[in-house]
Amino acid sequence: MHVLSVLLLVAGFEATFATVCPVGSHRYGKACYFVIKELKSWYKVQQICAASHASLAVPNSSEEQTFIWELLQREFYPDGLGNGAWIGCNDINQDGVWNCPLRGGETNAYQNWGEGNPSNQYSGADCALIGDRAGGIWWNQYCNNHRYATCELAIIDYDPLFCLQIGSSGRITSPCLTDNHVLMELQAQGLVSCGKACLSHPKCSSFNLKDQGQGKMVCQLNDLALQNAATEDVVEMENCYGLDL
Ligand SMILES: *[C@@H]1O[C@H](CO)[C@@H](O)[C@H](O)[C@H]1NC(C)=O
């Protein structure tokens, strides 16, 4: 009961906490960006981004374009990004009508096509890439080609962000403690509420936040810190985020 009232109190302040991008991703404006360093089709990287609550990046200004381009240059230094990296723009629905979906359903005015692009010479070349040269000018290709990609995680859409690991596949991974160490379990608003609940419990050393989808989260307070846990007490679980106090 005590903890629940703390949770309610904290809920009102959630937005005031500074948000830090997950480990391996990079902040620009109101989003965290991370690069998929495996070669995948446009459809596949779209799924990989979505699995981390993100979407394929869409540069919406020359500043954002430069940020993404420089990020790609750093991530692929010194080899370069070869045949480019997928972004969200595509004309899959209607050939020649390019759609660059932004957060909140807008489409962007900014475009950075190279000369002669987008090319409609080949139907099926429906997806856009940031190229390796000249500040990352865009060109279009078959969506089934395997390329790198950049995902964009909107901070406003997804609150519980701090110190989460991103695996090489782009998925958020984070070890959780097994149920043996749970002191109590409650519904939570997000990582911050769960962390506060742990702080207010005298025996709590770490917590698991289990994202059950559709905004439902379970917060488990643990009597043991993850860093002190034996290997058999730690599990890698999809949608479970474990953090030490
Ligand atoms: C995209 O850019 C336009 C024009 O600058 C701006 O009005 C809009 O808010 C931007 N949208 C996002 C999601 O950044």
TrEMBL record:
It is found in: Secreted. One of its GO terms (molecular function) is carbohydrate binding. The keyword Transmembrane does not apply. PROSITE patterns: C_TYPE_LECTIN_1 (PS00615), C_TYPE_LECTIN_2 (PS50041), PAN (PS50948). Gene3D superfamilies: Mannose-Binding Protein A, subunit A. Residues 28-152 form the C-type lectin domain. SUPFAM superfamilies: C-type lectin-like (SSF56436). Its main location: secreted. One of its GO terms (cellular component) is extracellular space. Residues 163-240 form the Apple domain. Residues 1-18 form the signal peptide. Keywords: Disulfide bond, Lectin, Secreted, Signal. It holds the Pfam family Lectin_C. This is C-type lectin. It comes from Patiria miniata (Bat star). The lineage of its organism: Eukaryota, Metazoa, Echinodermata, Eleutherozoa, Asterozoa.
